[in-house]
Specification:
Helix content is 37%, strand content 22%. The protein is α/β, with parallel strands linked by helices. Mean pLDDT is 93; it is low at 236-242.
Length: 409
């Protein structure tokens, strides 16, 4: 098979989709940021490049994505998968639509699918509306997201506001008739001038149907659910090698939580019951430099080899608008922790994960086993080696942070 290229719009999303491709039997490399020319992809079936473009200015998001697309094409990737979150979160102006437009314009594609459905995470699409569990996206905790609040669950309408091109729907009755029916509907939509086909999907089988129907497309878009289904259609001749995993380095663990999602807040509350914890709160200490100093002192005082938790995660009424300061402090603490001998970093939140990865200078990792679905351990073979667990805010069971910090499955 030819190389599959995947571009994710944030770092936790990159880890999520890399895990899905690996689980589907593809030997997968995960890179952070625009890659270096010298990256060796000889033994890879898929390469995921994770960018920080979800909330970047649109021109920056488009330019960085197209540079990575060009880099992938130069390494034999004749198909690209644009991965966004299963909650489709973005600003009202983008960047999902504008980045997808850039990708389709670059390769001359007239149509692609739009499929954020990921049933194993409780994300499904029905009648074009995105559901989180049993409630529409607009009624879920995502309506209160501090950076990308989602107040509309109608994907046709949401995407239609981000692109000048037509957006249509492949409804569930068509999907349930099979891949040939979906393929015919996509052809009819292309003929009518529709560029984006939002696809209903409630089950893994629905995703496999969409994936089989879309194999002829050179640009696809979706979340990790469709990527996993796509991996199955591409053949799993490398499945045994894909499951060969590097060992997670021995050493203590530090949890760094910046996400304010309801899921992460519950995980932080659970972790505080078991781990020494330090909270970052700019309301109590308004000077970010002083807040960092106090946290760094606490880390060094408690750095006796046991797992620790540092968090800025807060409920809506407790938040401040200065999320960037929290990210800088958590990233700086990650550097301090590695210097102190910590070898496992558990990071909650997409923006926080991006800040930590960049602060550590990590550009490539080996994706290994998942602590929870979509949350893999990633091993950086540096000096010293470090294992990173990069968790999207909404992912994981309530005890995930505790289990990961304590080295339990």
């Amino acid at each position: 098979m030819s190389l599959l290229g995947c571009i994710a719009d944030d770092y936790t999303g990159g880890a999520d989709v890399a895990a899905a491709l690996r689980r589907g039997g593809l030997r997968t490399a995960l890179l952070f940021g625009r890659p270096e020319t010298a990256v060796d992809l000889t033994d890879c079936d898929a390469v995921v490049v994770a960018l920080k473009t979800r909330t970047a200015p649109a021109t920056t998001a488009i330019a960085e994505t197209l540079q990575v697309r060009s880099w992938m094409a130069g390494r034999g990737a004749d198909r690209v998968y644009f991965k966004y979150c299963s909650t489709f979160d973005s600003t009202p102006q983008g960047n999902i639509g504008v980045v997808a437009d850039g990708l389709l314009d670059a390769d001359g594609s007239r149509l692609t699918v739009v499929c954020p459905s990921t049933p194993d995470q409780g994300r499904t699409v029905h009648n074009g509306h995105l559901f989180v569990g049993d409630v529409p996206l607009s009624e879920s905790p995502m309506r209160d997201h501090p950076l990308t609040p989602m107040t509309d669950s109608d994907l046709v309408r949401v995407l239609g506001a981000q692109t000048p091109h037509r957006v249509g729907l492949v409804g569930l009755p068509v999907v349930r008739r099979g891949a040939d029916a979906v393929r015919s509907e996509l052809a009819a939509m292309r003929h009518r001038g529709v560029r984006y086909a939002v696809t209903d999907a409630l089950t893994e089988e629905d995703l496999r149907t969409v994936a089989r129907a879309a194999t002829g497309l050179t640009t696809l878009t979706g979340a990790a659910g469709l990527a996993h289904a796509l991996a199955g259609t591409l053949g799993a001749e490398a499945s045994a090698k894909a499951r060969d995993t590097p060992e997670i380095p021995a050493g203590p663990a530090l949890v760094l939580a910046g996400s304010c999602s309801r899921t992460t807040l519950e995980q932080v509350d659970r972790a505080r019951e078991h781990l020494p914890a330090h909270r970052l709160d700019l309301r109590a200490v308004p000077d970010p430099e002083r807040l960092h100093e106090l946290a760094d002192d606490w880390l060094r005082e408690h750095g006796d080899g046991g797992p620790l938790l540092v968090y800025s995660s807060a409920r809506p009424e407790e938040r401040t608008s200065d999320s960037a300061s929290y990210e800088r402090i958590l990233a700086a603490l990650a550097r301090s922790a590695v210097q102190l001998g910590y070898r496992r970093l558990v990071v909650a939140g997409g923006e926080t994960s991006g800040a930590v990865v960049n602060a550590l200078g990590v550009t490539a990792v080996a994706v290994t086993g998942e602590a929870d679905r979509g949350v893999p351990w990633c091993v950086h073979d540096g000096d010293p080696p470090v294992a990173l667990l990069l968790k999207s805010g909404n992912f994981g069971r309530p005890d995930l942070l505790t289990r990961a910090a304590q080295g339990r499955s």
